[in-house]
Structures are given as structure tokens and as C-alpha cells.
């Protein structure tokens, strides 16, 4: 017996259902989003047949979109929605320097190698590598290898803007893409519009 307490639990604690936390319907912590990305990555049947490569433009596919809930169903569980995107990268393709507005994100490399550039330097990301970024974090992702690559991106809340930045990480406000919640375009639409504006 513990001398600090006279409380003892008899039997199987897992049988005391009212003491257990109910499983969350959707992830809401960095660890839970990272786990979701790892589960999707480990099941190639969920994503590999969908991958396409396009030499003229970047290819994107939204795997999942969870709309914001009207309110939090449990204490500590966010009501914000999230999106899961699949992206392909041919050699030489890149994102340009950008941030994700008010969204946090998690990037997971599924196939190939990508290089992420931030203010802190460059980092090569191999299959299985994960990078988490906070709202407003500026980065650029490039496939500077000789082989195609595939990555999975989770945005929380769902992506509504992707401001492009100059080489000095200063937001280029003319290229910011604020989007009304009632007319959210795909990431591909947002990126194409941004690239067209930059080439303009």
C-alpha cells in the first residue's frame, strides 16, 4: 500500500469506462495530425493510385476536407476544420517562398526527396520526414533531385490563403489570396493564380 494515499484500484482500470477519455473523431494536436499523416503514408493504396505528374504545372489532390464544426464537442477539442492534400513534384518544381496565412501545417514526404528552405537554412527531406510549421512561417519547398517526389500536407484550419514572399521573406501583399469561407477554391487554384500574378 502506498503510504501517501489510501486509494487503491481493484480490477482492470480499462473496465471503468467513465474514467477513459473518449476517442476524438478528428485530430486536434500536432501529435495527432502527425499520426494521421503517418497512417495515410503507410497505406499506399490510399494515395499512390491518385498521383499524377504534370511538367507544365504543379499537381494537387485534396484527399480529405473536414469542415469546421459549429462548436467544440469536448473540452480541449478544437472546432476548426482541416484539409489533407497530396502533391507531386517533378525534378525542378518548387512552391516559391510562401506562408499559409492563419493555418498551421504538417508536411510529410511520401516518395522521393524534397528540400525545404527557411530563414534558418535548407533541409533535405527523405521519405517519412515530417515538418511542422506555424501560421505565418515562411518556407519554400523544391524538388532539386533527379527523381519525382510526392508529399502529403495537412492544413489546420483548412488553407484559405497562401501569400507569396520575396527572397527577403517580406510578404508580397498584392499576391496574397484571401478567400471568402463560402467560396474556398482548391490549393491548386490558389497556387496557379499566384504563379500567374508573379509571371504577369
Task: Tell me about this structure.
The protein is α+β, with helices and mostly antiparallel strands and 200 residues long. The protein has three helices and eight strands; from the N terminus they run ααββββββββα. It is elongated. About 16% of the residues have low confidence.
In summary, what is this structure?
The protein is an alpha+beta fold. 15% of the residues lie in helices and 24% in strands.
**In sequence order, what are the helices and strands, one letter per element?**
HHEEEEEEEEH
SS field, number of helical segments: 3
Strand tally: 8
Main β-sheet description: 5 strands, antiparallel
Which key terms come to mind for this protein?
single chain; alpha+beta
SSE layout:
Layout: H1 30-42, H2 44-47, E1 59-66, E2 82-89, E3 104-111, E4 114-118, E5 121-125, E6 130-133, E7 140-142, E8 149-156, H3 187-199
Antiparallel strand pairs: 1-2, 2-8, 3-6, 3-8, 4-5, 4-7
Amino acid at each position: 500500500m502506498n503510504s501517501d494515499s489510501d486509494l487503491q484500484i481493484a480490477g482492470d482500470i480499462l473496465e471503468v469506462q467513465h474514467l477513459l477519455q473518449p476517442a476524438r473523431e478528428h485530430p486536434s494536436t500536432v501529435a495527432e495530425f502527425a499520426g494521421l499523416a503517418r497512417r495515410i503514408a503507410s497505406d499506399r493504396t490510399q494515395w499512390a493510385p491518385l498521383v499524377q505528374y504534370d511538367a507544365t504545372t504543379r499537381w494537387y489532390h485534396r484527399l480529405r476536407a473536414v469542415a469546421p464544426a459549429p462548436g467544440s464537442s469536448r473540452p480541449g477539442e478544437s472546432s476548426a476544420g482541416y484539409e489533407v492534400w497530396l502533391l507531386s513534384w517533378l525534378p525542378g518544381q518548387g512552391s516559391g517562398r510562401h506562408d499559409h496565412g492563419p493555418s498551421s501545417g504538417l508536411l510529410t514526404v511520401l516518395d522521393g526527396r524534397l528540400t525545404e528552405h527557411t530563414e534558418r537554412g535548407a533541409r533535405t527531406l527523405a521519405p517519412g520526414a515530417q515538418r511542422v510549421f506555424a501560421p505565418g512561417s515562411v518556407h519554400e519547398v523544391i524538388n532539386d533531385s533527379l527523381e519525382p517526389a510526392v508529399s502529403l500536407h495537412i492544413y489546420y484550419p483548412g488553407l484559405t490563403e497562401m501569400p507569396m514572399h520575396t527572397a527577403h521573406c517580406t510578404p508580397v501583399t498584392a499576391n496574397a489570396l484571401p478567400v471568402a469561407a463560402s467560396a474556398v477554391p482548391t490549393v491548386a487554384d490558389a497556387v496557379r493564380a499566384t504563379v500567374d500574378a508573379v509571371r504577369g
